[in-house]
Amino acid sequence: MSNPLSNSPSIDIDDSIVLFVGRLNYYKGVEYLIDAMSSVDGTLLVVGDGPRRQKLETQAANSDASVKFLGRVDDATLEACYTDADVFVLPSVEPSEAFGIVQLEAMAHGLPIVNTNLPTGVPWVSKHGETGLTVPPRDSDALASAISELLTGDKRRQLFVENARNRVLEMFLEDKMIESTIELYKRAI
Questions:
Q1: Is residue 10 situated within a structural domain?
Q2: What distance in Å separates the CA atoms of residue 159 and residue 122, rounded to the nearest whole number?
Q3: Is residue 2 part of a domain?
Q4: For burial by CB atoms within 10 Å, which of 70, 111, 152, 185 has the most?
């Protein structure tokens, strides 16, 4: 199967690829990720659209960061993004980000995660030191450090990759989630 990104001259897939997928709104924290990318040796692919896109594109254009905005993409392109990426980042800054299902998609594709320590399910989905790294919200330096560590730390990165896939298989497949929900109801009754 051909890789849609391979045919795009605007995307250098030889670079390390940091991936963000989501709606570009106030609670996603993409502005902190763009700031962080100024200190990271790699390219940020931003998949998604939303009310903050123009402002974020302007920020990226005025920075030293390598950032490509792909907008909304078809399923084949999204699959290629997950396949070609080296690290997935969910830099959310507000509790409005309750879970971050895109983390599960990334983990299922074997990507280590960098997420933020919100008082929600975000840091529960991808566990710090197990499937990725969790950093404080609104901290571009911490994001940059965590991303760089995952791009250069081969042994730790590989452990996170394996743990991420296993966590999805053990906890988040449909039958596992149904089973755990039934158990929860049984205990409540």
A1: no
A2: 20
A3: no
A4: 111
